[in-house]
Amino acid sequence: MTEEELDRLTDDKHQRLIEALREPFGADSKIAAAILMSALRREFGIPLKEEDQPRFMAALSLLPTASTAQPRFLRAHTKSDEGAEPYYVARLVEGIRDYDSACHFASPEEAEVYALQFLSWFGEVTPPDESAVPITEFDAPKTDDT
Fold it and tell me: Are 40 and 52 in contact (CB under 8 A)?
């Protein structure tokens, strides 16, 4: 598979995740999808090695379940648009990336409550897929004992 084909398939899955995650995430479905995709890419490395492509594609097909993503709430972050009153957003972190919620809040407490709700939703849509073969076992050599 060429890098262009892989990018096209990955982009397509990303767009489908955004749509699938609109309920319950709403405007933050883009963030939820980005978190899932970023964790997957980090797990396999960039650039993706040719020998890892089958495992990557299998893991990609399992999203949003069986994800290794573990987002957490970092803090309520103050922002302001030019000429507008400052507002708060929930800043989430997963791996080394920060994600600011698209939702605006009047107080840091409201942003924190929302972040906790986001994390709860994330846990609901990304439960481990018990029927899935763990990614680390896809290429496990077969022995006489198995």
Answer: no
- List Cα–Cα distances, 74 to 33, 36, 90, 125, in angstroms: 18, 17, 8, 21
Cα dihedral across residues 9, 12, 14, 20: positive or negative: negative
Kindly state whether residue 141 falls inside one of the protein's structural domains.
no
In what order do the strands lie in the sheet containing 97-100? 72-79, 87-94, 97-100
Q: Under 8 Å CB-to-CB from 30, ≥6 apart: which residues?
A: 18, 102
Backbone angles phi, psi at 144, to 5 degrees: -65, -20
For 14, half-sphere exposure in the C-beta direction (CA atoms, 13 angstrom radius) is 15
pLDDT tens track for 65-104: 889 999 999 999 999 888 888 999 999 999 999 999 999 9
* Structural domain contains residue 144: no
Asked whether the beta carbons of 79 and 89 are under 8 A apart, the reply is yes
> Which residues constitute the domain of residue 17?
3-130
Q: How many domains does the chain have?
A: 1
Q: Is residue 145 part of a domain?
A: no
* Domain assignment present for 76: yes
